[in-house]
Amino acid sequence: MPTGGISPLVAILWLLNVVLDTGGQLAFKAAAGDKDAGDGLARWKHMAARPWLWIGIGCYVVEFLVWIAFLSLVPLSEGVLLGSINIVAIMVAGRFLFGEKLTRLRVAGIMLVTLGVTIVGVAG
Q1: CB of 59 within 8 A of CB of 24?
Q2: Nearest to 16 by CA among 80, 78, 65
Q3: How confident is the model at residue 4 (pLDDT cuts 50, 70, 90)?
């Protein structure tokens, strides 16, 4: 990777990774949070018959391929740090889509992770 910034391909792969990981997590949460699902094996059968579980699995299959492509272009230490922004995206999306709480400590964590990812992304 050239010094002085992130190449357009790396940026696209990184954004795809964030979108696919976040989408997968949200789909799994939607599948698992279905109140009509029941318990035990009945719950798994119910989830398997709905699209959310399969959307989540599909997101993760594609994300795996995108992640491998991304890691082929950046050093592992940089890639893993840039990938940690997924935590922020998932927490924020969980707040808006599922009404999950963002405590002061979580917001502080979000800001610290975002700052770290920004430093790694800018510094290359």
Answers
A1: yes
A2: 65
A3: low
